[in-house]
Design goal:
The protein has about 240 residues and is mainly α. Among the domains are: about 45 residues; about 120 residues, Intergrase catalytic core (hpI Integrase, Chain A), CATH 1.10.443.10. About 50% of the residues lie in helices and about 5% in strands. It is built from ten helices and three strands, in the order H-H-H-H-E-E-E-H-H-H-H-H-H. A three-stranded antiparallel β-sheet has the order 1-2-3, with no helix packed on it.
């Protein structure tokens, strides 16, 4: 996976974890005497996330481009990923029947990892974007592609790249997870407590949220800026 397919260490480690748990279950159920995956070494996963996400201004530009887009699903897509922090498969899996109300809040019923269902409240801006995507429809998928079928992650990625270009957001590679990453880092920049961010992002392990936090601070606190300021008179 690393040498032939060039997957990142985190992807390889996650897949090996699945294989390890499969064989462990086989041992527990007495299908196998021992697990062949017991001594498989996983690649080292760095504590910092390799994804940096968008800046606050870049996210605003992307939201503006999506709001002005002729495609009525663009604004909802960016809001779901960037303002609610949904994973792309969660956003694409939403149906109109998943929109509801709970204790005075307008919410989305989201099926996440492990088929866990959560209720995610929608701020007014997101609610308006969702209503725009619904139009006069009463049933079906919330996000549709150009053919009128449910949008998948590939179509979502293409729309985001188109919007990023329209917004003047120049990035080497635009993909949906960058908006989820931006969702986390923007909340941290806004002063939201790390524990609350973990709950909002639905990270099972707080170390996952901390990886986003470290990646954000590594550039902000880089010693290069201190050195440049110290040598300002000579530069």
């Amino acid at each position: 996976m690393q040498e032939a397919q060039h997957y990142r260490p985190s992807t390889v480690s996650r897949r090996l974890s699945t294989v390890t748990m499969f064989y462990r279950t086989c041992v527990i159920d007495a299908v196998l005497e021992h697990s062949p995956a017991d001594y498989v070494r996983r690649p080292h996963v760095p504590p910092e996330s390799p994804t940096l996400g968008l800046s606050h201004l870049q996210l605003e530009a992307l939201l503006s481009a999506a709001r002005d887009s002729a495609n009525r699903y663009d604004f909802a897509l960016v809001c779901l990923l960037g303002l609610l922090g949904l994973r792309v498969f969660e956003a694409c899996g939403l149906s109109l029947s998943d929109i509801g109300e709970e204790h005075g809040h307008r919410v989305l019923r989201v099926v996440g990892k492990g088929d866990k269902t959560v209720l995610v409240p929608m701020p007014p801006a997101v609610s308006r974007a969702v209503d725009r995507a619904c139009g006069e429809r009463q049933t079906g998928a919330l996000l549709l592609n150009r053919d009128g079928r449910r949008m998948d992650r590939h179509a979502a990625t293409r729309r985001l790249r188109h919007l990023a270009k329209a917004a003047g957001v120049r990035l080497p590679r635009m993909h949906p997870h960058m908006l989820r990453h931006t969702y986390v880092t923007t909340m941290l920049d806004a002063g939201v407590d790390l524990r609350d961010v973990q709950i909002a992002a639905r990270h099972a392990d707080p170390r996952t949220t901390m990886r986003y936090d470290r990646a954000r601070k590594n550039l902000d606190r880089h010693p290069n800026y201190i050195l440049a300021a110290y040598m300002a008179s000579g530069t």
